[in-house]
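Researcher: Please predict.
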Amino acid sequence: MDIILWDLEDYGEHNAELFPDSLNPYCIGSEYFARNNKTYWPTYGILLDMVGDKDLDLPIEKNSYNRAKDIVNKVWDKAKKLENRHSGLR
């Protein structure tokens, strides 16, 4: 399992790609990683974004579900099993 973390990927200047001297384009870390790792092909990817809320409620994301229903179900089923196993630890 590989865990890759980027911060502030969507905190860039709008249309920064049109300005070569921009110091703050969008997705600088992930784009650099993709350009420099041509042979790296993950089997799965899970985007964790803005998940620090104390009372977090995460619905199933529709685009992911429509494109990869089996994988989404696999992840959510595992999460439910883990939640049930650890529900008494709160």
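Model: The CA atoms of residues 52 and 65 lie 22 Å apart.
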